[in-house]
Structure formats: structure tokens, C-alpha cells
Amino acid sequence: MEFLLNLGYIVIAIALIITSSNVFISSASKVAVILNVPSIIIGTLLIGFGNALPELAISITSALNDCTRLAIGNAYGSNLVNSGLVLGLISIISPIAVHSLLLKREIPWLFISMLLATVAVSNGELSRTESAVLLTLCIIYIITSVNTGIEEANSGEDEKQKAKKGELLLQTVITFAGLIVLSLSSKLFIYGAVNIARLLEISELVIGITIIAFGTSVPELFSSIIAVRRKENDLAIGNLIGSNIFNLLGVIGIAGVISPSVVENDVLCRDAFVAAVMTLFLFVCTCSKKITRINGIILVLMYAVYITYMICNVIIR
Predict the structure, then answer these.
(1) Is residue 187 scored above 80 in pLDDT?
(2) Cβ proximity of 96 and 295 under 8 Å
(3) pTM (whole model) above 0.70
(4) Cβ neighbours of residue 79 under 8 Å, at least 6 residues apart?
(5) CATH number reported for the structural domain that contains residue 53 in this entry
């Protein structure tokens, strides 16, 4: 009975997380349009960051409850879901042409993020200093992304719509309301997940990499599918890459700053390794200027093998 109750908490929390994330992205985008912010920022920075908010909220909540390992597992797990399952599925639905100069900037950032996050946990401990470095780089990434967006935006294109102050106020209130619901629902999610982990005697890291990672990556899945169907390929890939960068720098960084933690060896030998392989494969795909259906199938199979190994490992234990 206790198991089903906590499972119900998780289901409700996932629904609230997805809903509040969508509300945030929608209302924040409207605020950006009202304020005449270049659309490129909305696509590559705002949506990518918005979709990473569930992971960020769960990271903060986990750290405050001395479950930093859960935040680390969630960050790597979400990246694996994004790079393997989400990118694989949207590539199978529709092959993605890679032609944006923006990706030439984002891919190096992704590699740097992956490298530094791996180095940070390589000694078996995530210190506050290492976490502060990751968080600082996350802030630098945000600033440079905004600057790049402004530089590449067409200054000749003006937004035709000029909203009234009342509309701006309304959308701002809705944006903050979405963030509040997101924070509360993520706390409920952590409560249920940690209780189930304890009931089943399963590592919090495993729970973070599987159930929580998939649940918080659902917004990326839906938004990417919508973007691809609308022929916004750069938006779809940029969304996933931006979300992965935020996970590695922001999610892990803020969790470690709040609560430094010992890191399980599996993070480096298993999770970081698989994430690095997927990132390298993504780099090869982007170099060929197209992510084909075959590439998508390979990514999904890589993720399937990883999850199968995780499940079998839990069963054996």
C-alpha cells in the first residue's frame, strides 16, 4: 500500500512537472515577444533552459534534502534520455538536416561541459569548489548565448505585435506561477522517489538515472517532436543540446554547491562513459550534416542497451 501511494505521488508530480514546464515556456516566450527579444534567444536559450527546469528544480530539492547523488544521477540520466531516446526518436520520425552555424558553437560547449563534469566527479567526490566552477561556466554559457543571439538576430525585423502593459503583467504572473508549481511538484516527486528507493532497497542513483530522468525529460521529447514536425530542426537539436549543457553545468553545479557529496564509482565508469559515447556519436552525425533514421535507430538502441543493463543490474542485486 505504501509503495502504491508513493508511486501515485510520482505520477501526479510528473504530470504537474510537465504541465508547469509547458506553462513556463509558453508564457515566458510570450513575455520575450512582448519585450521584443530576438526569436533566436527564445528558441536556443529560453526553451532549452525552460526544459531543463525540472532537472534544476529536482537538483535543488535533492541537495537541500542531502540527496545530491540523486541530482547527479538525474542530470546524467536526463542527458542519456535526451541524446539517446529523444534525439533517436525524432530522427526516426523525420531525418534532421544539420546546417545551422549555431550548432558549431553549441557542440564544443557540450564537449567542454561533458569533460569538466566528468573531471569534477572523477575523484569520487563532488566538492563545493568544483561545483562552483561548473555553475560559473553555466552562467558564462547563458551570457554568451544571449550575446550570440543578439548579434545574429536580424535587427531589421521588428515585432509587429505591441502588447499592452496588462498583457505583459499577466504573462509575467503566469511565468512565476509556473515556476512555483514546478518547484512544489518536484519536491513531491523527490519524496515519492526516495521512499520507493528505500522500500525496494534500490540505489538513489539508479532511481535518478531511470525513472526520474525519463519523467523530467518528457518536456524535451514533446517539444522536440513538435519542432521537427514544424520543420524547425535547429530548434529541436538546439533544445536538446542546450538542455544537456544546463544539466551538466547548472544541475550538477548547483547541487554540489548546496551540498557536496561522495560520488558513486558507477557514475564515472558507466553513466559518464555512455553519455560521452553518445555525445561523440552526435558530433559525428552533425559533421555529416544530417542525422538519418539509421542514426536515430542506433541512438535508441544504445539507450535501450543502457537501460536494460541498469534494470538487470538492479534485479541481480
Answers:
(1) no
(2) no
(3) yes
(4) 244, 247, 248, 275, 278
(5) 1.20.1420.30
Give domain status of residue 254, yes or no. yes
Q: Tens of pLDDT along 191-242?
A: 887 788 778 877 666 666 666 666 666 667 777 777 777 676 776 787 788 8
On whether residue 17 sits in a domain, the answer given is yes
Q: How many CB atoms lie within 10 A of CB 13?
A: 25
Instruction: Give the percent of the chain with pLDDT over 70.
Output: 78
Task: Give the span between the Cα atoms of 51 and 271, in whole angstroms.
Answer: 21
Instruction: State the DSSP string of 128-150.
Output: HHHHHHHHHHHHHHHHHHHHHHH
pLDDT at 36: 67
Q: What is the domain extent for residue 18?
A: 2-151+166-316
d(CA 306, CA 314): 13
Rg (CA), the chain: 19
Q: Which residue has the cell 541530482?
A: 71
Q: What angle do CA 305, 310, 311 make, to 5 degrees?
A: 100
C-alpha cell belonging to residue 150: 543578439
What does the alpha-carbon distance between residue 105 and residue 145 come to, in Å, rounded to a whole number? 9
Residues 108-122 pLDDT 10s: 888 899 989 988 888
Say if residues 68 and 126 touch (Cβ distance below 8 Å): yes
Nearest one of 3, 48, 57 to 212, comparing CA atoms: 57
Residue 158 lies in a domain: no
Asked if the model's pLDDT at residue 105 lies above 50, the reply is yes
Cα–Cα distance between 190 and 184 in angstroms, integer? 10
Nearest to 117 by CA among 307, 246, 281: 246
- pLDDT confidence bin for 133, thresholds 50/70/90: very high
Chain mean pLDDT for the chain: 79
Q: Are 192 and 13 in contact (CB under 8 A)?
A: yes
Q: How far apart are CA 202 and CA 200, in angstroms?
A: 5
